[in-house]
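Working notes for the structural subgroup meeting. M.R. asked for a predicted model of this chain before we commit to crystallization trials. I am recording the input and output together here so anyone reviewing the notebook later can reproduce the run.

Input as submitted:
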Amino acid sequence: MASWTSLNGGSDAEPAKVSTDISLVAHNGSDPEAFALADVIVRAVSAGLDHYLQERSLFRQVCPDQELFVMPVFNLQRYAPGEGFRQWHCD
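Returned structure, recorded in token form:
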């Protein structure tokens, strides 16, 4: 687990995001416990995405390659009181 403060291009401005992140890689089996957790999360989020796309079939038409999937490298992010994104952003 790491405390993460993303900076704005190295300036002294207020950070764009303050959070505590856990990075997981679903295709890296070097840590069996982390791999198992990441695998469960990827399968659950993928099932949710499939269900979402079944209900909203036109959504695929707005995607350039009409292919949507869950990335197997991701962060679990925790925001303590007063933390979070401080600027507009897109994930």
